[in-house]
Amino acid sequence: MRFTSIDLLRTLAIAIMVLVHFTENLAGYTPIVAGIGAPLFMFLSGVSYRLWLNSQLARDRADNEISRVTIRRGLFLFALGFLFNVLVWMPEDIFNWDVLTLIGFSLMAMEWARRVSTVVVLSLCGLIFLVSPAVREVADWPSYWNEGFYDPNFSMADVLLGFLAVGYFPILPWLMVPLVGFTVGTDFFGNGRTSEPTERALRRGYVGGGLMIGLAVTAVFIRNYFPQWFPAAWPDIWSMFPPSPIYLMGVLGWAWFSFAIAYRWFDSRSSSHQFLPLRGIAHTFSKHSLSIYLLHHVLHVWPLWIWGAVTTDDMTSLWRSATTVPQAIGLAGICLVVCYLIFRWWEHRQWPTAETCMRRVCG
Amino acid sequence: MIRSEAKPSLNVLDAANAANDVARSLTAAAPTDSQVAGTSILTWPETSQFWFVCLEPITANEPPPPPQGTDVFFRSAAIRATGTPVSRDAFQLPTTLPKNHLRLAVIAQPATQVAEWIDRLQEHTLRCQNSSTPIVGSVLLSFSGVTLLWHPDQLVLVGPPDRIAIARDAALSAHYYEMQVRQLESNIDQAWEQTHKDAPLAFEFGERAIGRLPNLSHQFQEILSWRTCYARLAPQILVPHVHPPTLASQIGERFRERLRLEERLEHIDTKLEAQERVYELCSHRSSEYMVARTGHQLEWIIILLLLVQTVMWIIEMLANSSGQ
Predict the structure, then answer these.
(1) What is the least distance, in Å, from the CA of A131 to any CA of chain B?
(2) B267 beta partners
C-alpha cells in the first residue's frame, strides 16, 4: 500500500540531500536547508518499516520469517553502506558511519522494537536523547573532527567510537530518529492490519510536532538574541554535526508535523484524485530512493575525483571548489531530472535497482 | 429462528403476509394481492379501530408520560402499553414502525359475524404465503369468541366488545415478551461472527491485540446485558399454567406454546453460555497479558538503563584507549 504523503516527503528529503551534497561537495557552500533532509529520510524509513510489517502481518507471514527478512535487509544496507563508502568516497573512509549504515542498523533495532511496547521504545529514544551530549563529551567528539569533517584513526577503538558516538551518523543519537518514525507509524497505522489514522493520531502529529518545532525555534531565538545569558563554552544550539538536542527536537518535530499535514492533504479521501502528476513523480522518486541516493553521489563525486586526478596529481584538488554555487544548484536540478528519467525508463524496462536487489537477496 | 407451525389449517396463518396484504388490499393503489385472491371482502369492517401501540419497559427510570391523545391500555409492574389512534389509511401505510411499536387493529364485534371475512383472510394468506419469509411466523388464535391474528409487526383482534379489552391486554403483554426474546435472539445471532473472530484471543493475547481491548470489553458488556435481560425475561415466560384458566391466561399460554418461547429461551441460554465462555477467557488472557506487560516494560526500562550505562562505560574506555 503506497501513501502519497510518504512518497512526497521522501522525494523532498532526496531533493534536499541532492541539493546539499552538490552545493557542499562542488562549491563548498552549505544551504540553509542542510540538516533537514537526512533526518526526514531516516524518520520515513521507520514509518515505512511499520507499513511493511503490517503488510506482512496481514498476510499471516510467520514471525520468524519476518525477523529473518528484517535482519537480512538490515545487514544488506549495513554492508551496502561500507561498499558505498569505499566506492564513492575513499577506501580509507570505509568507517565514516554514513546514513546507510545507520539505517541498516536501525532496521535491526526495529526488529527488536516491534516486539516491545511503544513505551519501551520511547524510553530508549528518551535515554538516547539525554545521554548523547554526555557521551560526546566523554568521547571527546571535537578531536575526531577536522574542519567540519570526520577524520578518525584507523583503529578498532576509533571505529567503534565512530559507530557509537562520533561518526557522521552514529547510533547515539541518530538511532532515535528511525525509532521515533516507527513509533509514529504505529500510532498512525496500527500494529496489525494497516488502518487509516485516527483523527487523534493526526492531531497528535500537528500538536506534538508543532510544539517541538516551536520549542526548538524559541530556543534558537533566545540563544541568538540573548547570547550573554549562556556560557561561551556551550556548544552550538543548532548543529547537525554534532547533532545538538535542540536540533534533534526540531527535526523530529518537523518530520512528525509534516507527515501528519502531508497525510491530511494528500492521503485523505477527499484529495485522492488531486495532484496526480505530482503523485506520479513522487512515486518514482520514493520507490527508487535508495538507488537515487547512491546514484546522485556517483554522478557528482566520481567526476570530481576523475577530473581532479586528470588535471592535477591530487584527486581531491577540486573538492568543494569545482563550481560556483549557482552552477552547483543547477547541476543538482539536472541530476534530479536525470534520475527521474533514468528510473522511469528503468522501471519500464523492469531492470534491477538497488531496491529490487535487496528484495531478491533478502526476501 | 423459530417459526410457528404454520399448517394450512384455519387456525394458523402466515400473518406476515396476511396482515400486510390485508392492509395493502385496502389501498386503492396496490390491490394486486387481493385481486389474486379474488377478494373484495378484504375491506375492514365498519367497527374497526386502529392504533400504533408503544410497549415500554418500566425500569428504575419512570418512562415519560404519554403524549396527549394517547390511550394507556395497561400498565403492569414491568410494561406500559400506550396506543395512538390512527386512521385506516395511516395504519395501512407500509412504513416501518419504531422499535417497541406494533400496529393494532381491533374489530369490536363477535367473531362469528365476520367469520367469513376471517376465512377469506386465511384463504388469502395461504395463497400469498410464499411471497415472503418472516423471521418469526404468525399465530391465529380463537378463544371464547375472540380471534387474534398476530404477526411480529401487527395484531388484529376480533371479538365481542366486553372481552376485547382483556384479550388485547393479554395479547400485547405476550407480544412484548416475544419481542424481547426475538430481540435477544437477533442480538446473539449477530454477535457470532465477532465471537468467532475474537475466539483466538481466548487462547493467546499479544501486543497486536491491545487495540482490540475496547471492542472486547464492549462485547463482554453487551453479553452481560443480554444475560441480564434473559434473567429478567425467564420468570415471565417460564411460568406454570394458571388454574382455573381465564381468557387472559389462556391467550398468554397459547402464545408461549405457539411461539415456542420456552424452547427459544433454552437456546438463548446455551448460546449465551458459549459466548460468555469465549469472552471470559478473553478477559482473563487480556488482563494477565496487560499485568505482565507492565512488568515487562519496567524490566525493559531497567535493561535499557543498564545498557546505556554499559555503552557509556565502553565509550569511556574506548576514548581512553584511543590515540586521538
Answers:
(1) 8
(2) none
Per CB-CB distance under 8 Å, the chain B contacts of A158 are 318, 322-324
What is the biggest distance separating any 2 CA atoms in chain B, rounded to whole angstroms? 117
Query: A59, A138, A159, A195: which to substitute to probe chain B, counting the most B Cβ within 10 Å?
Result: A138
DSSP string over A143-199: GGEETTEE---SSHHHHHHIIIIISSS-HHHHTHHHHHHHHHHHHHH-SSS--PPPH
A88 CB-near residues (< 8 Å, 6+ apart): A294, A297, A298, A301, A302
Can you give the C-alpha Rg of chain A in angstroms?
20
pLDDT tens track for B163-216: 888 999 999 999 999 999 999 999 999 999 999 999 999 998 988 888 889 999
B213 vs B72: CA distance, rounded Å:
45
How is residue B222 annotated by DSSP?
H
In chain B, the residue whose alpha carbon lies closest to the alpha carbon of A187 is B211
Can you give the length of chain B in residues? 324
Burial class (CB in 10 A: 0-12, 13-18, 19+), B324: middle
- Is the Cβ pair B301, A139 closer than 8 Å? no
Q: What is the pLDDT of residues A90-123, one digit of tens each?
A: 888 899 999 999 999 999 999 999 999 999 999 9
A134 contacts A202 by C-beta, under 8 angstroms: no
SS3 of chain B: helix, strand, coil, percent, to 5: 60, 15, 25
Three-state DSSP class for residue B154: strand
| pTM of the model as a whole | 0.74
Q: Which of A215, A217, A187, A214 is nearest to A203 (CA)?
A: A187
Task: Report phi then psi at A110, rounded to 5.
Answer: -70, -25
Interacting residues of B75 by C-beta distance below 8 A, sequence separation 6+: B58, B81
- Asked whether the beta carbons of A300 and A330 are under 8 A apart, the reply is no
For residue A171, the chain B residue with the least C-alpha distance is: B311
Among A346, A343, A332, A359, residue whose Cα is nearest residue A26: A332
Angle (CA) A79-A81-A86 rounded to 5° is 100
Give A297's contacts (C-beta < 8 A, 6+ positions apart): A21, A84, A88
B65-81 average pLDDT score = 83
Annotate A68-122 with DSSP letters as a single string: HHHHHHHHHHHHHHHHHHHHHS-GGGTTS--HHHHHHHHHHHHHHHTTS-HHHHH
Q: How many CA atoms lie within 13 A of B310 on its CB side?
A: 6
